[in-house]
Amino acid sequence: MKRPKLTRTGKPRKISGHGITSGKKERVHTARGRKLSSTRWLQRQLNDPYVAAAKREGYRSRAAYKLIELDEKFHFLKNAHTIVDLGAAPGGWTQVVAKKCPKDAVIVGIDILPMEPVAGATILEMDFLSEQAEAELSRLIGGEADLVISDMAAPTTGHKETDHLRTMALVEAAWYFAEDVLKKGGTFVAKVFAGGTNNELLERMKGRFETIRHYKPPASRTGSPETYLVAMGFRG
């Protein structure tokens, strides 16, 4: 297959606070047999400084920087000794946790999709929504967790309301799990889509946590409807 023809334009630009710099723009010319949407996706990937940084630093996805930036804002990884990563594949968030949490931390990632091992973590290839998953996760962490993180999102349909509702169902499932396993003082981090967390669920969370914030990290693409809920200080 022929490589896409590229042209360069633009100037370098520093991104966020990680020394991530965008180089000159790569422009992908349309090619016979390639859809316009595919051309746009390829151009976006080639010009994404987070994609380049992930390759350079050994992270499996650009999403790793979303967790790094969330932690820089809220500082929840440093003292977390027991962590559950829901919807972990391909493993970028699990890699960040293994790097930034204490060396003796118990880290468990789960996803229905297969993923390569991550040093220092236990990986479960299971459907998080299955009856067996919660019991197995609880067994592996010894019953309680300091931190539950979720980057889960339902496949997008292009219909904003539908995408929001489907992703919120996953957020709600992640929350019910976190509510059962978090230690007092623990933290819950989850991706939500445009519209934020539904009011009923948010009110329930407010009764169980000291603070709840919504935050869109710089690594989250400008056009993406995603944001992140960070709930800290679980009251038990």
Structure description:
- By secondary structure, the protein is an alpha/beta fold.
- It folds into 2 domains: 6-57, no CATH class; 64-234, Vaccinia Virus protein VP39 (Rossmann fold), CATH 3.40.50.150.
- The protein has 7 helices and 11 strands.
- The strands form 3 sheets. It has a 7-stranded mixed sheet with strand order 7-6-5-8-9-11-10, sandwiched between helices.
- The longest helix is centred in the C-terminal third of the chain and has 22 residues, at 160-181.
- The chain is globular and about 40 Å long.
- The N and C termini lie far apart (57 Å).
- Residues 1-13 and 36-43 have low confidence and may be disordered.
